[in-house]
Structure formats: C-alpha cells, structure tokens
Write a structure and sequence with these properties.
By secondary structure, this protein is mostly helical. It is built from six helices and no strands. The chain has helices at residues 13-20, 26-32, 34-50, 54-61, 65-71, 81-90.
Amino acid sequence: MAELKYTPVRHNHAQFLANASERKGFAEAYESLELEYQVVNQLLKARTRAGLTQDAVAERMGTTKSAVSRLEAAGKHAPSLTTLKRYAKAVGCELQIKLVRQKAT
C-alpha cells in the first residue's frame, strides 16, 4: 500500500455547537443523539490521530469509503459491535465499552 499524505481538516466542535445552538429545536435534537455524537467524535479523533483518510480506513476494513462515511455520521445508521471493532483495528485502536451507573435524580 502506498504511503498516504493526509492533512486533516480541523473541526472546532465547540464553535459548531455554539453556532448551532442558536437554531430553534437544536438543543432537543442534539440531546437525543448525544451518545451517537460522542461515538462519532471518538471515531474521527482516532482516524485523525492515525493520519488516515476514509479511503484508507475502508481499504483496511475491506469495505467502501461510503460505508466509512456512514459510520462517521451520527443519525440513522447504528453500526454493529463487529463493525466498530473492525474500524478500531483499522485506525490502530481497540474498542472498549463500559456501562456507567446513572446518577440518581
């Protein structure tokens, strides 16, 4: 495989949230997808640290760039644990999942 030169585009998530939170209904919609956004954020950070493109991750996973793009987008798609493990391996990570006791309300 050829050496890939990749310069990630920086995303200022805090600024994105500040701008988006001004839109009506954003807070409720974002909150309903909070876990999905956290997972996507972890995927993007791991890929960026690895210096890989979506194409490179797709090749390592044995899938397509569009499949990786869907993985990295919060919303309707809910990836399986097997897919998440393959993605983690492709970017040089391991998948860890933990259950955290809810705070008493």
